[in-house]
Design a protein that fits this description.
mainly alpha; 3 helices; about 60% helix; elongated; binds zinc ion
Length: about 130
């Protein structure tokens, strides 16, 4: 009955499809791991669907990214894997995603501002010539 240091490491109570007990750890506040938690079934299907699309396009997509966004993208990729493995909770991942969206919004608006400036400079030059 020594629970010291193992309070978070409760095993999942589910049985796998092959009849063996699940060896993953239960999520905090649940008797099940991420894979077996009935409350997360819909979430899981959605994550798998997005994950599939994600991996098939990941390389092409990464090549299109502005270099400044590559680390953000990689962090999100890691977070997705961590959620699937159950090492971070979906709500933690959602918090990460919200922060990433905020970062991207800032980068995008600064990029837009730069472009706008270029266009304005271009137009001023044209006006001067006319
Ligand atoms: Zn399980």
């Amino acid at each position: 009955m020594t629970e010291a240091g193992r309070s978070e490491a409760k095993p999942c109570i589910a049985t796998r499809q092959d009849g063996q007990p699940c060896r993953s750890f239960a999520l905090p506040g649940s008797a099940y791991c991420y894979t077996h938690d009935p409350a997360r079934a819909a979430e899981r299907i959605e994550a798998r669907r997005r994950g599939g699309q994600h991996t098939s396009k990941a390389h092409r997509f990464r090549a299109l990214l502005p270099p400044r966004l590559v680390p953000v993208f990689e962090r999100l990729e890691q977070a997705m894997e961590s959620v699937e493995q159950g090492s971070i909770s979906p709500s933690q991942a959602q918090a990460l995603a919200a922060l990433a969206r905020a970062m991207v919004a800032v980068l995008e608006s600064s990029e837009l501002a730069e472009r706008l400036k270029e266009i304005e400079t271009m137009l001023e030059g044209r006006d001067g010539r006319a």
